[in-house]
Specification:
Layout: H1 9-24, H2 29-36, H3 40-47, H4 55-64, H5 70-81, H6 97-108, E1 111-116, H7 127-135, H8 143-156, H9 158-161, E2 167-173, H10 174-178, H11 183-197, E3 203-208, E4 222-226, E5 234-237, E6 244-246, H12 249-265, H13 269-282
Parallel strand pairs: 1-2, 2-3
Antiparallel strand pairs: 1-4, 4-5, 5-6
Helix pairs in contact: 2-3, 4-5, 7-8, 11-13
């Protein structure tokens, strides 16, 4: 199989899981190469995501690594089998790789949870609000790139509207509801849109009021994407230089706990909807 110059985050994740299984079994890349009839370099490339791994090779390795978790192995084999080009590929070469990786992560997730303290959830943006967010970047983005990012963000919302829409829970701090990106009118329209979308069966919005006081974490945005099995969950964090991804077990547990805290301390969905309505009426 040919190598890839720039593997996606999902391709790198499959390779990382194969490496994790091998090291847990205390086996070498030379041993894995012998199982597959490959040289050691090709196995190393497979574990870094540079070289594709077929479902058959995933199962051969898992069997010889004495991994007995059938659900986990099946999920890895499915990752290896799915090589269809997603809609986000149309933006390759025109938008940063990290934005494409976020779209791919969302598309393959079984459930999404996000936390926002400054911006409203990207999966629920109207184009005017999204344009205002991207236009506030420093250094300023060219207008053409702003429009590309807006179009990409609008297409990301397919994950909530397709035939098998993903379940989505958004925790939003009151501060994010009151930030006026794009001005009063754009913000009011955006808040009204949140309320409309929250009526969907697969979408749940929960607000953390300012009066709730302190909350855990550093206040940055969090995306927690659940995989088909717990081991394949992924956390994506926003940063000034682009999206960051983590799937270390300790980090996954930390962010699950963070979002579970939010679920306990935020307003229930109907009260959250009423709260958002009340802020919209003030604008």
């Amino acid at each position: 199989m040919p190598t890839r110059a720039t593997p996606t985050e999902r391709q790198k994740r499959l390779g990382a899981e194969l490496r994790k299984m091998r090291t847990a079994a205390e086996l070498t890349t030379e041993y894995a190469a012998g199982l597959l009839g490959l040289d050691r370099t090709k196995v190393s490339n497979m574990e870094s995501g540079i070289r594709a791994a077929s479902p058959e090779r995933v199962r051969i390795l898992a069997s010889n690594y004495e991994c007995s978790d059938e659900d986990y192995i099946a999920a890895l084999a499915d990752m290896a089998a799915n090589r269809q080009r997603g809609w986000w590929e149309q933006y390759r070469g025109t938008l940063p790789q990290g934005l494409l990786d976020v779209a791919e992560l969302e598309w393959h997730a079984t459930r999404l949870r996000t936390l926002q303290t400054v911006h409203l959830p990207g999966l629920l943006h109207l184009s005017g609000y999204a344009r205002a967010v991207f236009s506030s970047a420093i250094p300023p983005l060219p207008k053409s790139e702003v429009e590309l990012r807006v179009a990409h963000r609008m297409q990301r919302q397919q994950v909530l509207e397709r035939d098998n829409p993903v379940d989505y829970v958004a925790y939003i701090h009151e501060a994010a509801l009151r930030m006026q990106f794009g001005g009063r009118r754009a913000t009011r329209e955006q808040l009204d849109h949140l309320c409309v979308m929250s009526d969907r069966d697969n979408i749940e919005l929960r607000v953390l009021p300012v009066e709730a006081g302190e909350f855990p974490g550093a206040g940055h945005a969090i995306l927690y994407a659940e995989g088909p099995v717990l081991q394949l969950d992924t956390v994506q964090l926003d940063s000034a230089h682009g999206p960051e991804f983590t799937h270390a077990e300790a980090q996954l547990g930390k962010y699950r706990g963070h979002l579970d805290w939010m679920n306990t301390h935020t307003l229930a969905p109907q009260r959250s909807r009423d709260f958002i309505h009340s802020i919209a009426r003030e604008l």
